């Protein structure tokens, strides 16, 4: 009987506080409601709508007619879509490895600077292109890469005849890749710097006492320790490269001819130039399938070289 009184008191206290808990739960639901509605309105519903549109021949203004998988079949036999995919893959091979390597190299260099204010300055300088309006920066690079632009002028001083960067089918994709690496390397640098800061300094001191050279310390200490970040930067770079649109649109508009038309640009032109919304949606879903497939492939292979145990 003596133990029954505290139990009754505790039960009564729970009953008294239950309305307060319900009020807190209601308040929490109200707080997350705007973001939930935003995700539904601007992410989930558009994705579902694009899937439905891909099964129609909708042109934007006309009445949509259900055509099933006809758009997907047409995309698989579309030579322009195949050409755009090949251009995208070439761009990926040019931009992704180069961007990751340059970001890592610059991050290691900045991390080894003795003066803290210098590290801050270079972090800011390299990250500025990321927060600058992409179209404005691309227009600036369009001027720099013109036949009589600053880049060819400098090459001329060195005795090198510069090509028509944006007007030559052989040079336009490398030029776009260089611009994209310059613009996007800041993100990788910041991520790598954060990862490098977490590597214990005593590991380097022990390696130095053992006579390890700087490259050996980087290979056997730094690289394994920051391998999860390398994987993250690689994934983010691949996602961005497969969806490259703004740089190609502003710098070359897919030209000359279709020599720099990527999948994203081809989807845009199909939808808003030729007004084939259904076909463009099907192309977008095929690009998503390719992207997901590459991500799954990366995820399965990352266990061979990514060391999470040392994080």
Give a written overview of the molecule.
This protein has 311 residues and is mainly α. It folds into 2 domains: 52 residues, no CATH class; 233 residues, MetI-like fold. 74% of the residues lie in helices and 0% in strands. The protein has 13 helices and no strands. The longest helix has 50 residues. The protein is globular. The termini are far apart. 25% of the residues are buried. InterPro entries: ABC_transporter_permease, MetI-like, MetI-like_sf. This is Multiple sugar transport system permease protein. It is found in: Cell membrane.
Q: Tell me the name of the CATH class of the largest domain.
A: Mainly Alpha
Rg, rounded, reads 27 Å
H and E string: HHHHHHHHHHHHH
What do the pLDDT scores average to? 90
Biggest sheet statistics = none
Overall shape: globular
**Termini, distance in Å?**
55 Å
CATH superfamily of the largest domain: MetI-like
Strand content: under 5%
Low-confidence stretches: none
* Total number of distinct structural domains: 2
Q: Kindly identify the CATH topology of the largest domain.
A: MetI-like fold
Helix content: over 70%
Report the structural category.
mainly alpha
List its traits:
311 residues, mainly alpha, MetI-like fold, 2 domains, 0% strand, transport
Q: How are the SSEs ordered, and which strands pair?
A:
Layout lengths: L3 H50 L16 H7 L2 H33 L4 H16 L2 H11 L5 H8 L14 H26 L3 H9 L4 H12 L1 H16 L3 H6 L11 H10 L4 H25 L10
Pfam families: BPD_transp_1 (PF00528)
Membrane topology: Multi-pass membrane protein
Keywords: Cell membrane, Membrane, Sugar transport, Transmembrane, Transmembrane helix, Transport
């Amino acid at each position: 009987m003596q133990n029954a009184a505290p139990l009754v008191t505790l039960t009564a206290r729970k009953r008294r506080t239950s309305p307060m808990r319900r009020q807190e739960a209601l308040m929490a639901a109200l707080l997350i409601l705007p973001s939930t509605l935003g995700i539904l309105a601007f992410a989930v519903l558009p994705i579902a709508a694009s899937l439905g549109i891909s099964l129609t021949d909708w042109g934007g203004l006309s009445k949509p007619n259900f055509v099933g998988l006809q758009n997907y079949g047409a995309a698989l036999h579309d030579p322009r879509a195949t050409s755009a995919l090949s251009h995208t893959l070439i761009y990926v091979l040019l931009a992704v490895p180069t961007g990751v390597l340059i970001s890592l190299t610059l991050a290691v260099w900045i991390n080894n600077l003795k003066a803290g204010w210098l590290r801050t300055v270079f972090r800011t300088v390299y990250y500025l292109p990321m927060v600058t309006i992409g179209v404005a920066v691309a227009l600036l690079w369009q001027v720099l890469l013109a036949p009589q632009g600053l880049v060819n002028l400098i090459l001329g001083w060195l005795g090198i005849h510069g090509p028509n960067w944006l007007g030559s089918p052989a040079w336009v994709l490398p030029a776009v890749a260089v611009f994209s690496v310059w613009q996007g390397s800041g993100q990788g640098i910041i991520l790598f710097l954060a990862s490098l800061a977490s590597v214990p300094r005593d590991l380097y001191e022990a390696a130095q006492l053992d006579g390890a050279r700087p490259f050996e310390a980087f290979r056997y200490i730094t690289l394994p320790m920051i391998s999860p970040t390398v994987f993250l930067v690689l994934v983010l770079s691949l996602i961005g490269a497969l969806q490259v649109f703004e740089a190609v649109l502003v710098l070359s508009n897919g030209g000359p001819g279709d020599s720099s038309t990527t999948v994203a640009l081809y989807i845009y032109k199909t939808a808003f130039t030729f007004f084939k919304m259904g076909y463009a949606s099907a192309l977008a879903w095929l690009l998503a399938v390719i992207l997901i497939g590459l991500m799954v492939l990366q995820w399965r292979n990352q266990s061979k070289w990514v060391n999470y145990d040392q994080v």
